[in-house]
Amino acid sequence: MPDTIIVEQSGGVMAITLNRPDVLNAVNDQMAGELRDTLRQGTRDAAVRCVVITGAGRGFCSGQDLRDRAGGPTSYREHLHATYNPVISLIRTMEKPVLAAVNGVAAGAGCSLALAADLRVASERASFIEVFSRVGLVPDSGSTWFLPRLVGLGKALELAYLAEPVDAQEALRLGLVNRVVPHEDLMAKTMDLAQRLAAGPTRAYGLTKRAMTYALRSTLEDALDYEAHMQEVAGRTADHREGVTAFLEKRQARYEGR
Amino acid sequence: MAYQNITAATEDGVAVVTLNRPDVLNALNQTTMNELVDACEGFDRDEAVRCIVITGAGRAFAAGADIKEMAGASAPQMLAGYRFQQWERIRKITTPIIAAVNGLALGGGCELAMLCDIIVASETAQFGQPEINLGIMPGAGGTQRLTRAIGKYRAMEMVLTGRPIPARQAEAWGLVTKVVPPEVVLDEAKGMAREIAGKAPVAVRLAKESVLKAFDTHLEGGLDFERKCFYLLFATEDRAEGISAFLEKRKAIFKGR
Fold first, then answer.
1. Domain of residue B242, CATH code
2. Is A210 part of the contact surface with chain B (CB cutoff 8 Å)?
3. Is residue A254 part of a domain?
4. Tens-place pLDDT, residues A136-189
5. Which of B59, B120, B169, B184 to mutate to test the interface with A (most CBs of A within 10 A)?
6. Residues on chain A touching B184 (C-beta within 8 angstroms)
7. How many domains would you assign to chain A?
8. From B39, B57, B60, B65, active-site residue
9. Distance CA B71, CA B68 (A)
10. Is residue B255 part of a domain?
11. Which of B167, B147, B144, B164 is nearest to B155 (CA)?
12. Is residue B189 within 8 Å of residue B120, measured between CB atoms?
């Protein structure tokens, strides 16, 4: 059982709550390991059809717990490869929707973690800070990849250089988050969305995510070819047959995620 | 012959051999190799089979030799065994063989893929020669075929570090000709196999032999060999059919004569 995070599973949704509220859910090595193991399990478990990540208390995630790193190994590269990078890769390659419910500050690697999710629902109290430059570091855990893709290169560099907080409304305007909701509604709204996605054609969602990830680093010709492959695979799923049948029968489709 | 460790089936002139011990990542033990050789030789003798596809069941293509089987072997035993004769027999198959690499192709698994004529890979596949990690080295063509396929420096890095490379790297380096999603890798290989199966069989066999000749002869010898094969094809009915069909703008029907 993990003790730096809380994992709850119901109705096809795996909800992960980062749970070190006294340090705004700063990530120590234990939390990174537990997050990685839980995401791996969520990836493999067919009953999990949507994953939600949120934080307990005031913050979403304040990034690396600097106290945890004091006196630790000296290689930042090795530390990233051992801790954050597998978490980010799992979120990006997991073929099911991943949502971040951003309840408060998302700073540094915590900001990267929010950006790694497929969709972000933010509380009005959420804020995003690419805090790295304040301590003379480079945005890590995927921020250099996610930021320019979400907001464009110019804005991404501004956010990284100045390391100033972006509030929820500004984040929405920039395209850094998908929705902003009143703070007290955050979990209810996010879980509604998660339940809706968990009841969807999970394979098609997963293939869509894979195809878009592929398209980000390919030419149009290659992306067209890749889409055709994905459609071939989606076309063989039970959910596709159910979707077509339901459409012809003028009823709601009942997807099973296969 | 009923097989234990592989499955074999034919359809439309294409034979598919599947390494089928997914719980051990299709490790190539003696029984598997015996069955693979038996199946491939059988298909090579069968005129109806025009192309062979080799693939693996589950997560791996083949994760290497069966280490347990080799654990107790001495040098004289390895030397005396007929282990590598099986690889030679697959090398002598004249029917084109396509490897549909669905996952890990490590050690003997990578060497088996390279023994094939064309390699199609899943984007999740990995190729590697990790033998160095066990205090040994590749022994079924790894140092030779890999070097010829990707060049000295890349082969040296792979063989000396034992690090595997992902499919797209293998594609960029020329080891793999096509990378596709895992769900369709076998379809892709079968599609290519059907295309080859539709060509004139004698031309296909001589063309395969001629390309392979490039690896063990100097240019002049290779060109002479190629030219003789080329002349020989002018004695076939299929060549007359192929040229008439082209001129008449219709699809050729080849009979292997």
1. 1.10.12.10
2. yes
3. no
4. 999 999 999 999 999 999 999 999 999 999 999 999 999 999 999 999 999 999
5. B184
6. 229, 232-233
7. 2
8. B65
9. 5
10. no
11. B147
12. yes
